[in-house]
Design goal:
The protein is an alpha/beta fold. The protein contains seven helices and five strands; from the N terminus they run βαβαβαβαβααα. It has one domain: Rossmann fold (3-Layer(aba) Sandwich). The protein is globular and about 60 Å long.
């Protein structure tokens, strides 16, 4: 994050714990596939608050446009990041994670979604799917700002659809989708 100005990572993933890396891994692969620069940090909002606040001062001087803050349990990290970057033109997306204590991740979900009014924080779904959706949203922002080629993102969406194709039942006639698109 020492990079200044327009050069350097556009997306910053901040993880509340090293143990969160497994859930973020597929999203990092996604960003690599579309060629957008990113960086990761591991910093706890509870244990490392002075360092986190220092990071919030530095981020606006970098090329970062979206921060994806990933945390479980009390999940204070996304709210603190959003508060620290408020008014700086940087989108903050919080992703709640499940934990061994709360396997459904509801505690983290409530923590992120129930921040006070006036705090610009967006919340994605829980766990790996939430991190992927947050990353796709960040990449949409990158297309809008010219930091990601639209065709690369569209190719990624197509690739993801091919991984999970529609399975049509044999008992129901399938409409000709090519004809429908032409109408």
């Amino acid at each position: 994050m020492a990079t200044q100005g327009n050069n350097g990572p556009r997306i910053l993933f901040i993880l509340g714990s090293k143990s969160d890396r497994d859930k973020v891994g597929p999203a990092l692969e996604l960003v690599n596939r579309v060629g957008v620069e990113y960086d990761t940090a591991v910093i706890s909002a509870h244990r490392d608050l002075p360092e986190l606040m220092e990071m919030m001062e530095i981020i606006p001087t970098t090329a970062v446009k979206v921060v994806i803050a990933v945390a479980g349990m009390a999940a204070a990290l996304p709210g603190i990041v959003a508060a620290g970057l408020k008014g700086k033109g940087i989108l903050v997306i919080g992703v709640p994670l499940s934990s061994s204590v709360h396997p459904d991740g509801l505690d983290a979900l409530f923590s992120i979604t129930q921040v006070p009014a006036g705090l610009p924080l967006v919340c994605a779904g829980v766990d790996a799917a939430g991190v992927i959706n947050a990353t796709l949203a960040a990449l949409e922002v990158m297309v809008m700002t010219g930091d990601c080629e639209q065709n690369l993102l569209l190719e990624e969406y197509s690739r993801r659809k091919e991984e999970k194709p529609v399975v049509w039942p044999d008992s129901i006639p399938r409409p000709n989708m090519d004809e429908k698109k032409g109408n």
